[in-house]
Write a structure and sequence with these properties.
The complex is a heterodimer of chains A (279) and B (347). Chain A has 279 residues and is an alpha/beta fold. Chain A has helices spanning 59-66, 93-98, 116-123, 132-137, 141-160, 175-188, 205-222, 233-239, 257-262, 264-270; strands spanning 19-30, 33-44, 48-52, 74-81, 84-87, 101-103, 193-197, 225-229, 242-247, 250-255. In chain B, strands 1-4 form a two-stranded antiparallel ribbon. Chain B has a two-stranded antiparallel sheet with strand order 2-3. Classes of the chains: A alpha/beta (279), B mainly alpha (347). The complex binds adenosine-5'-triphosphate and magnesium ion.
């Protein structure tokens, strides 16, 4: 089967529009709190799917189920790649990463004492082959792969315009730059599916615009499927092909941005919220 | 003065010693280490050997605690495993001393990995307590498994020889120590600029993100325990061969704490810091002792006070470092270098 995309930043083997992720009747609760109540959804190759909803709606919990950090009590998550179907609720987070599912976090979770380059290089982890012996001797293949992968990372550094800070420890960087580095680390994995949890939270308008441009670049030029949680409705309606609305752990809307904006349930859920979905 | 160095290839940008100045410094250090034994007296050589053995153990501990973030109070016990392995293999099986070294390292690595299993569930102080249990269990085994270890009696190790030459006199041992310390240092430095070492640091900084980026954190924690213990075992084995004698009292919880102090003072997560910390920790008591002797004539009763003063200074130093320079001597050394690099325009 031919690869859908030949570009290096994308490791999915699907063609645009093919079913890539199928979440089926997900239930997740923490003690008495029901974070997800029977959520089902589908994401197709090369689309940008936005997940929106008020605070505490269960958006992050859903992503955590996909990346294997939370185990739902009920339901299945099917993922398609390499001509195979994988059931994500049975896999560990590091196994899910090997399928090419990469993500960023709502509260930046970078390796703060490592440099930008090392953070990105850690994103290459699943592609590197050095073991304790070749690494400790910095011998042959271990040295070669360090240099080859460094070359690969320079492309991501160019794309994200972070040339000047590549040797800086990330803990010393401004918040907006850290968000950018976190996107870079996820891209370094060559994602088949890129998951971003509020990548623009706390940014000013200009930074948001940059971030939106990077996400669109990755999606349009490299064909990477993106799932994004975002509170800024302007951005969501602008960049996404597909919007999924959660409220109190249940899905109340699913469709194109236009359809969702006209959905009466969605409008009701957002009434009384400070951000009006109709704006 | 450097005005800025621009590398034209990734190879040179990623090399360990990236500037001529750095290379020169390395050559000077090597030259000094090679000339030292010909100039030093016996006492100074003894100190150097103690520093070397300590540094190998400290690098081992730093791999686990400083780089991977897994606090270990089992250092003493793991050294004991290395020391008893080496001593017993030589004394009971008649194995040549140099062959006991790799065996001791591997045995200690396996024991370390086994006692690292609690790190699957435990972090921080809870893991520290679990390693404290390892310390107690191993100590208990050594003192009670009398048939094997000789229990609380000291285990006498055959004198290590090579081609009929006694290897544990201070001059000869120095070369063994220097070779093994260099190898350990080089290995550790390389490890942390490749895949495995980076994953260790990632686990320390943010274990959940590491797991989500594809690091099998449990497997890597065990690997950190094994790698660390390998070198700690080497350090223990060297103690056995250097001293000709193994006694469990050298490897108690006090030793574990002392090594934690070495890497805190030297610099957590720094290979060179482990060496600076060892120099400091071996020389400080030696200097205090000599000072005490010199003052002994002036202040009566001084000789009896020395042990207390040593303990006190020791404790105060650790506290001062924790408060004022948590990154240790390695950071202080970096700052000094940075200052002189741009001197005299260092504003
Ligand atoms: N680890 C956890 N333990 C206990 N409760 C949790 C946990 N994670 C999430 N929850 C609860 O699940 C519900 C959904 O939380 P979640 O973080 O998924 O919301 P969200 O939609 O991402 O909200 P926000 O927009 O504020 O990020 C909340 O009530 C939250 O308190
Ligand atoms: Mg959230």
């Amino acid at each position: 089967m031919p690869r859908g995309f030949t570009h290096v930043l994308n490791s999915s083997t699907l063609q645009p529009g093919e079913l890539q992720l199928k979440v089926d009747n997900l239930h997740l609760s923490f003690g008495g709190v029901q974070a997800l109540r029977g959520v089902s959804l589908e994401v197709r190759q090369s689309e940008i799917a936005a997940i929106i909803g008020p605070n505490g709606a269960g958006k992050t919990s859903l992503l955590n189920c996909i990346s294997g950090l939370y185990r739902p009590q009920n339901g299945r998550i099917h993922f398609y790649n390499n001509n195979q179907e994988y059931e994500l609720t049975r896999l560990k987070p590091y196994q899910i990463a090997r399928l090419g599912i990469a993500r960023s976090f709502q509260n930046i979770e970078l390796f703060k004492h490592m440099t930008v380059l090392d953070n990105l290089m850690l994103g290459r982890h699943v592609h590197l082959k050095a073991n304790i012996f070749t690494g400790g001797l910095y011998w042959g293949p271990a040295q070669r792969e360090e240099i080859d992968n460094r070359r690969f990372l320079e492309d991501i550094i160019d794309l994200l315009e972070i040339e000047a800070i590549r040797k800086k420890p990330v803990g010393t960087l401004a918040y907006g730059l850290q968000k950018r580095v976190e996107l870079g680390r996820a891209l370094a994995l060559q994602p088949s599916l890129l998951i971003l949890d509020e990548p623009m939270a706390g940014m000013n308008a200009e930074e948001k615009e940059d971030m939106a441009r990077f996400i669109l670049d990755v999606n349009e030029e490299h064909g990477v499927t993106v799932i994004i949680i975002e509170h800024d409705m302007g951005v969501v309606m602008d960049i996404s092909d597909h919007v999924i609305v959660l409220d109190f752990g249940a899905k109340i809307g699913d469709g194109t941005p236009d359809e969702v904006q006209r959905n009466p349930d969605v409008i009701r859920a957002y009434l009384g919220e400070e951000h009006n979905i109709l704006q | 003065m450097e005005s800025g160095i621009f590398h034209t290839t990734y190879e040179s940008d990623m090399a360990l010693r990236r500037t001529p100045l750095m290379r020169l410094r390395l050559i000077l250090v090597i030259a000094a280490a090679l000339i030292f034994p010909f100039l030093a007296n016996g006492y100074q050589l003894t100190l150097a050997n103690q520093i070397g053995i300590t540094a190998i153990g400290a690098i081992g501990l730093n791999i686990l605690t400083g780089f991977t973030g897994q606090i270990s109070l089992g250092q003493g016990a793991f050294m004991a495993v290395g020391a008893y392995s080496s001593g017993l293999l030589a004394a009971r099986l008649g194995m040549p001393w140099w062959l006991t070294l790799p065996f001791s390292c591997i045995i200690t690595a396996v024991v370390g990995a086994i006692f690292g299993i609690p790190s699957l569930r435990l972090k921080g102080l809870y893991l520290a307590i679990a390693t404290l249990a390892a310390q107690q269990i191993i100590e208990w085994l050594i003192t009670h498994w009398t048939v094997l270890t000789g229990g609380v009696e000291a285990l006498v190790v055959p004198t290590p020889t090579l081609f009929g030459i006694r290897m544990n006199d201070d001059f000869n041992f120095y070369w063994i120590m220097l070779l093994l310390l260099s190898a350990t240092t080089l290995f550790a430095v390389n490890l942390f600029r490749t895949k495995i070492g980076r994953a260790f640091i990632a686990i320390r900084d943010q274990d959940i993100a590491a797991e989500v980026m594809g690091v099998n954190t449990f497997q890597y924690k065990l690997l950190a325990f094994a790698t660390s213990s390998f070198f700690v075992g080497l350090s223990g084995a060297l103690v056995a061969q250097y001293r000709n004698i193994v006694n469990y009292e050298r490897f108690t919880i006090e030793t574990s704490i002392l090594y934690l102090a070495v890497i805190i003072i030297g610099g957590l997560g720094s290979v060179s810091g482990s060496i600076y910390g060892s120099v400091f920790m071996v020389l400080l008591p030696a200097i205090l002792t000599n000072l005490g002797r010199a003052l002994g004539g002036v202040i009566p009763g001084m000789s009896r006070l020395i042990p207390f003063i040593q303990q006190g200074v020791f404790g105060i130093t650790i506290i001062l470092f924790l408060i004022f320079e948590p990154e240790g001597l390695a950071k202080i050394w970096r700052d000094i270098k940075d200052y002189f690099r741009l001197w005299p325009f260092s504003y």
